[in-house]
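Dear H.,

Thanks for agreeing to be a second pair of eyes. The structure we're designing against is below in token form, covering all 147 positions.
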């Protein structure tokens, strides 16, 4: 379909594609590929970012927590807010990632639910206020297999 072509770069036959997972360096510079499990304890969050891969898959593993969830933004903050764009407000009841910026939507589905989105979508893990949030997450590119 046209949507598959737009998102995946091909119309069908994903068997002809390789998955290349995002790799993140540790403090010693060793690369560790996703997917991985992210654990957010009370006060835990992840700053607003774009994953930079074709797609990101997130599976909710635990839903017995308060706060938290994944906030999605339609656009980056305005130029007026650029200097403050990564200031997270952990105690903010409005779940703002930036001063003055409201998320377009907040996903907080039940455990076992998978969410998938394009890697250029601005998002963040909102602060967990009580309990422990756990998600399985991986960002990846779909590359054409060499013949």
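And this is the sequence the design step returned. I haven't edited it by hand at all.
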């Amino acid at each position: 379909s046209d949507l598959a072509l737009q998102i995946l770069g091909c119309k069908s036959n994903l068997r002809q594609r390789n998955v290349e997972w995002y790799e993140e360096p540790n403090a010693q510079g060793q690369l560790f590929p996703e997917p991985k499990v992210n654990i957010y304890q009370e006060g835990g969050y992840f700053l607003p970012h774009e994953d930079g891969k074709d797609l990101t898959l997130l599976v909710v593993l635990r839903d017995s927590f308060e706060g938290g969830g994944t906030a999605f933004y339609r656009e980056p903050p305005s130029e007026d807010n650029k200097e403050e764009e990564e200031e997270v407000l952990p105690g903010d009841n409005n779940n703002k990632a930036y001063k003055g910026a409201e998320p377009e939507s907040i996903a907080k589905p039940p455990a076992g639910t998978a969410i998938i989105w394009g890697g250029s979508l601005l998002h963040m893990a909102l602060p967990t206020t009580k309990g422990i949030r756990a998600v399985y997450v991986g960002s990846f590119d779909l590359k054409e297999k060499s013949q």
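Two observations from my side: The chain has one helix and 13 strands. Residues 71 and 106 are 4 Å apart (CA to CA).

Warmly,
E.
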